Amino acid sequence: MRADGRPQLSPVVVAVDDDGRLLVSTRETAIKAKNLARDPRASVCGLNDGFFGEWVQAEGNAELIHLPDAMPLLEDYYRRISGEHPDWQEYREAMRRDKRLIIRVVVDRAGPSVSG
Fold this sequence. Notes:
By secondary structure, the chain is α+β, with helices and mostly antiparallel strands.
């Protein structure tokens, strides 16, 4: 949420870890990270690759995990989205240079549970 209470929206790529938590990679300087640091409530709307058809909304509280603790999670996030990186050392350097962090959302509610 923005400081004025309105939702702050960003298109993101979301991975799901083995415990069902949502993972998003972002920069420390991103507005979404600053807003979540102030208010951890998060909502994600997931669309299928074709856009139309099935979708899901998930809500929960976000945790911001900063470097160096974020590095294993950033690597796991990449693997879940894209597979193996051709040069993990290059990837790690880019994550440090970009000041990346992981947003991890514990899902409290997901749906839709009914359709109209």
